[in-house]
Design goal:
It is built from 15 helices and 52 strands. The chain starts with a helix and ends with a strand. The strands form 9 sheets. Strands 6, 7, 8, 9, 10, 11, 14, 16, 19 and 20 form a 10-stranded antiparallel sheet that branches. Helix content is about 20%, strand content about 30%. By secondary structure, the protein is an alpha+beta fold.
Length: about 900
């Protein structure tokens, strides 16, 4: 009884005390020595110069050495390498010189993030050009980067930058322009009176290799704002953290942590880390900077004038405005990427050319998900499923949290509560629905548990600093953690998802990875000690932010393996890192049921999209607390446009399924969910665009309107693709809402069809039944207007095309369709159509593969309605070619559901196949 009782008491105390954000449980910069040191440095403090600059093996190489060093204590040089890649990407690497007396260990470089295709895009640098400036006193070496751009290294003082071509070309991005670069090399031994240990609260970090941090400044030129570096619950445009007008602010922290009820408007780091920042300004456009490093990172954004007193010693261009930043990391190497843009979408494409684009999800995964900690048993599951049908609310996935397992042993079922898991999954699958179960990285230390027994015998656990299996506390009590950095161990883990190993699983069961920061209840900052050891004697401090990424990767590979590589996986992960987009979805973690968290969900998901992760969302209604009914309704109305759309709640909250709040509120939530199902063809097309190009599903307004300064800091509204603008309502009992509609063209209200002028702020009535959403003039949006119990049941339904005409009476849009399940689309098995409307004629043309051989995808689906918005005439008929068939144009409803609504011009029953070429001429 002793150990189980102590486990229960510990978990009970943890649950009661930890379900709120406690500032003193986490380190701030002053309690983090590497951050404190880096932040205290003054501009121009870097004494390194570049020497022996040359071209070697297609790269620019140089040594970084102190300008002055004594013979008694010579400094070891750093090795710098600059490489150029196609599409305007420059890579900078700086590491210790391994040819000298090697340090006790090699500094960690993050594996398995850069996609192989990127490596093959390397340009072989042939020529090095030298320039002298400032009267010939300063030498720079210049290499070709791409058409119109060059990479430059200034020798003394050392600086690396990208500029427009030519000696007087304007700078785009630079590193060490402010002289803040510092690289703490690994030491063999402690110096006299040097203490390497660090203490925080009751924990001691032994730090056997001593200080090894890196810091440097990065400048973005002609930039008005910078964005990115998730995950933080803060504004889209990053606020300054240091400099004039900033008081007592922390840097933006990147350190994956299990944070309960996080506070909004804070630079505090949350569950994931992507050290990628993009800038945007009206005069030039966009650029980006990415540091591939998995150690803890802190990033300052400086306010204007922070370095004015050093302007006489810093050689900064006075004719370009600039945003300066400071990047600080505890360990690793410099492996940095400069992205020249210049358009916002160019930067995203360049970044995802390095880390990969978003995986194309199965079609069910972009529909609505219903989750709770926890649905109690099979009866509860069946009841919830039936209630959705009873209330005519579609959904696609029902989720089970940790209580479904046998004592928190993952890959098992509680035999009393879930005695027939396969039958349960099959009953839901018969309606086209799926289930998701949770699988976390903490493995219960129980000799009778086969996962623990195997992992222990094979040595597959992370070790503590003494070399023993690390033992920490999480939901399962005493737990150890799989060492996912090792590919062999990831492969072993993937096998656990086979139907033979995961008894009770079926092809309709998918996976949720939670707590994979990793969360350790009794660890420092609720995580793993930094001196824990991974495969290859890598310290946890060096790869902490990538731990959840490798866990996500291994789980996704397991779901691919279980069906012999045929079907796409679905895995939701809380922790993330660059490259996570290749393996599934993420969400914004344990948010709260309040209006501020509804509001901050928009910049959080937009930021994830900007940094490569399109498939993301926030828990509808907030995980913690009980939302008032109005908040819950507004959250459904907004969440219907999140890429990942899931309702979820903590087990201490009241049940909040959509039918529990009275008939009218049920109707409002039902209609919000129906909006998502109506737009599924459009969303799926956008997910394919994200898969092909990296461009996110939901976008900041400035991504579509890059010269409109009013959009640069607007994070209350967002674009869904290039065609829809959505404005949330973020205040209780709002009577009106102001919406800025950018651009010169009109916008059409999605509910009423009314036209609104672009380039203006509109004060609108805050309607109970919807939030403001508009279709952009000049776009064509595909929909499916018939409502079913699940997206699967909509597969063969006909389409509606909504044509919103611009001032030239033209519009265009696309539709992408495949089997929604397998990887066959990678072999060309899909339909991809482009619709264009011009001169009164709608044309459908093929933009997919001309021939796909045995992999051709076939569909008999047709277009049953074509809605015309903005047509000034009122024609009666249209001619379909090549059939030479006439059809009627009449007044019809804009929406088929939601009660009486406006009538709009509609081409009824053209019945043209989506797979065919055709034209429809309005007569």
């Amino acid at each position: 009884m002793g150990k189980p009782l102590s486990t229960f008491i510990f978990l009970l105390l943890f649950i009661n005390c930890a379900y709120s954000w406690k500032k003193d449980e986490f380190r701030n910069c002053n309690q983090t020595p590497f951050c404190k040191r880096a932040r205290s440095r003054k501009p121009a403090s870097c004494s390194l110069i570049a020497a022996d600059v040359s071209i070697s093996d297609g790269d620019l190489v140089a040594k970084l050495i102190p300008k002055e060093s004594s013979q008694e204590n010579p400094a070891k040089p750093l090795i710098l390498t600059i490489s150029a890649y196609q599409d305007g990407v420059m890579r900078l690497k700086i590491d210790e010189d391994q040819t000298l007396a090697p340090p006790r260990k090699k500094r960690f470089e993050v594996p398995d993030v850069i996609v192989p295709e990127f490596v093959n895009k390397k340009l072989w640098l042939q020529r090095l050009k030298e320039e002298r400036i400032e009267g010939g006193l300063v030498i720079s070496s210049v290499v070709y980067l791409s058409e119109g751009y060059e990479g430059v290294i200034r020798h003394d003082p050392f600086e690396v930058f990208v500029r427009e071509s030519g000696e007087n070309g304007k700078k785009v991005l630079s590193l060490n322009s402010n002289g803040l670069f510092d690289f703490e090399q690994l030491k063999e031994n402690k110096e006299d009176n040097e203490d390497w240990e660090e203490k925080f609260r009751t924990h001691t970090d032994k730090r056997p290799y001593g200080p090894q941090s890196i810091s440097f400044d990065v400048s973005f030129y002609d930039a008005d704002f910078v964005y990115g570096i998730p995950e933080h619950a803060t504004s889209l445009a990053l606020k300054p953290t240091k400099g004039p007008g900033v008081e007592d602010s922390e840097p933006y922290r990147l350190f994956n942590l299990d944070v309960f009820e996080y506070v909004h408007d804070s630079p505090f780091g949350l569950y994931g880390s992507i050290p990628f920042m993009t800038s945007h300004g009206r005069s030039r456009g966009s650029s980006g900077f990415f540091w591939l490093n998995a150690a803890e990172m802190q990033i300052d954004v400086f306010s204007h004038g922070w370095n004015d007193e050093y302007s006489s010693v810093l050689m900064l261009p006075s004719d370009q405005k600039r945003v300066d930043t400071l990047w600080m990391s505890e360990a690793g190497v410099v492996d940095a990427f400069f992205f020249i843009g210049p358009k916002p979408k160019d930067v995203v494409r360049q970044y995802t050319s390095v880390t990969g684009t978003s995986a194309l999800p199965q079609s069910f995964a972009i529909a609505y998900h219903q989750c709770r900690w926890n649905y109690r048993d099979e009866e509860d599951v069946y009841n919830v499923d039936a209630k959705f049908d009873e209330h005519d609310i579609p959904y696609d996935v029902l989720w089970l949290d940790i209580e479904h397992t046998d004592g928190k042993r993952y890959f098992t079922w509680d035999k009393m509560l879930f005695p027939n898991p396969e039958e349960m999954q099959n009953k839901l699958a018969a309606k086209g629905r799926r289930m998701v179960t949770i699988v976390d990285p903490h493995i219960k230390r129980d000799e009778s548990y086969y996962i623990h027994k195997e992992a222990s015998e094979k040595g597959y656990y992370v070790k503590d600093s003494s070399g023993k299996d690390f033992d920490g506390w999480c939901w399962s009590g005493s737990s150890s953690y799989i060492d996912m950095v090792n590919p062999e161990i990831r492969s072993w883990w993937a096998e656990k998802f086979s139907y033979e190993n995961y008894v009770g699983s079926t092809p309709s069961l998918y996976i949720w990875n939670d707590m994979n920061e990793p969360s350790v209840f009794n660890g420092p900052e609720v995580s793993m000690p930094r001196d824990a050891l991974h495969h290859g004697d890598v310290e946890h401090r060096e790869l902490h932010n990538a731990y959840g990424y490798y866990f996500h990767m291994a789980t996704a590979e397991g779901l691919v393996k279980r069906n012999d590589g045929k079907d796409r996986p679905f895995v939701l992960s809380r922790a993330f890192f660059p490259g996570s987009q290749r393996y599934g979805a993420v969400w914004t973690g344990d948010n709260s049921a309040d209006w501020d968290h509804l509001r901050v969900s928009v910049p959080m998901t937009l930021t994830l999209g900007l940094t490569g992760i399109s498939f993301s969302g926030a828990d509808i209604g907030g995980f913690f607390g009980n939302p008032d009914t109005e908040l819950l309704v507004r959250w459904y109305q907004l969440g219907a446009y999140y890429p990942f759309f899931r309702g979820h709640a903590h087990h201490d909250t009241k049940r909040r399924e959509p039918w529990l709040f009275g008939e009218r509120n049920t109707e409002l939530m039902r209609e919000a969910i129906h909006v998502r199902y109506m737009l599924l063809p459009y969303f799926y097309t956008l997910f394919r665009e994200a898969n092909a190009t990296g461009i996110p599903v939901i976008r900041p307004l400035w991504m579509e309107f890059p010269s409109d300064e009013k959009t640069f800091s607007n994070d209350e509204a967002f674009m869904v693709g290039n065609g829809l603008l959505v404005q949330g309502i973020y205040t209780q009992r709002a009577k009106h809402v102001s919406v800025y509609l950018p651009g010169d063209e009109r916008w059409y209200d999605m509910k009423s069809g009314s036209a609104y002028k672009g380039g203006a702020i509109h004060k609108l009535e805050a309607l109970e039944d919807s939030i403001p959403s508009f279709q952009r003039a000049g776009t064509i949006i595909p929909r499916k207007d018939r409502f079913r119990r699940s997206s699967t049941q909509m597969e063969y339904d006909p389409y509606t095309l909504v044509i919103a005409l611009n001032t030239s009476k033209s519009a265009e849009g696309e539709l992408y369709v495949d089997d929604g399940k397998t990887f066959e689309f990678q072999q060309g098995s899909y339909i991809h159509r482009r619709f264009t409307f011009s001169n009164g004629r709608l044309t459908s043309s093929n933009v997919g593969p001309a021939t796909a051989g045995d992999h051709k995808y076939a569909s008999e689906c047709t277009v049953e309605r074509i809605i015309l918005l903005g047509l000034s005439t009122q024609p009666k008929t249209a001619l379909i070619e090549p059939e030479n068939r006439k059809v009627d144009i009449t007044w019809g409803p804009l929406l088929l559901r939601g009660g009486p609504g406006p009538s709009v011009l509609t081409i009824r029953k053209p019945n043209v196949r989506i797979a065919d070429d055709w034209t429809i001429q309005i007569l």
